[in-house]
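Open question from group meeting: does this chain pack into something compact, or does most of it stay loose? Before anyone orders reagents, we agreed to write out a predicted structure and look at it together. Recording both the input and the output here so the notebook holds the full record.
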Amino acid sequence: MGDLPCVSHPDSYFAWLPLPDEARADRVVKALMDDNISVSTAAPFCTAQTVPQAIRLALGSVSTESLWPALVKVREAVEAERYR
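C-alpha cells returned:
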C-alpha cells in the first residue's frame, strides 16, 4: 500500500486503512464502488461519537489473484482523493 499504513491483526481477514488527513472515506468508497471494488467506511463499525476517516478492507472474500490488483486500485483511489 505504499506509505499508507494498514492496521490489522496477523490472523484477521480484514484490515483498516486510516486515510490521510485530507482524504474523505465516503468519497474513496464511492470511487472504488465505481470500479466494482466494495469497501466500507468506519461508520458501521464505530461506537464513538466521531467516526474516523478510514476504510475497512475485507481480504478473505477474494482470490489472491484478484486481491493484488484491487489493492493497487485502493491505493490509487486514496492518492487521488489526497490530492483532490
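Observations to bring back to the group:
The CA atoms of residues 41 and 55 lie 5 Å apart.
Helices lie at 25-34, 64-82.
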